[in-house]
Amino acid sequence: MALLEILCYPDPRLHKIARSIEVFDDRLKELVENLSQTMYEAPGVGLAATQVDVHEQLIVIDTSDTRDELLVLINPKIIWQSEEKKSWREGCLSVPDYFDEVTRPDKIVVKAQNVQGEFFELEAEGLMSVCIQHEMDHLIGKVFVEYLSALKKARIKSKMKKRFSS
Ligand code: K1U
Ligand code: ZN
Q1: How do residues 115-146 score in pLDDT, each as one tens digit?
Q2: Which of 88, 119, 120, 154 sits at a 20 to 30 Å CA gap from 10?
Q3: What's the 70 CA to ligand 1 centre distance in angstroms?
Q4: Alpha carbon of residue 53 to chain centroid
């Protein structure tokens, strides 16, 4: 197992679009292990492959208190979302030490494949729903700060550039 480097905003590689995964082999299993290890070590409640510069549709999530309920979503698609929306204070391992409110659909149903390539559906609400939507945004090159005002975004960009230039 290996820990992977997490890209930090505003790295342009965070805006790449991930391709779908067609081959469910040992390489994928190793990537899932490394990505989940990196999430647990960070620590985070989720991580998208995009954040470690792998542009494939893979996310890992564990919102449990015990940190032993790993969820792996490959090629995830939201097939239903509630009209009701909720705001949540979000964080991102690619934007360290910054948290802000984002409004998203409260409940979702997502269809995805597991590491064997089998399809499954999952209904999510609360942190799980927020986390799946946040990670799926990474797969289309979107970082949560893009939901914030232009002023907030500019401040975050400037802080992050200073932080990583020294
Ligand atoms: O960078 C990421 O995409 C992971 C991110 C997921 C997330 C958190 C909260 C709302 C939406 C999406 C994080 O895990 S940030 C770290 C964090 O919130 C956390 C870390 C350890 C325990 C509990 C929370
Ligand atoms: Zn994130």
Answers
A1: 999 999 999 999 999 999 999 999 999 999 99
A2: 88
A3: 14
A4: 12
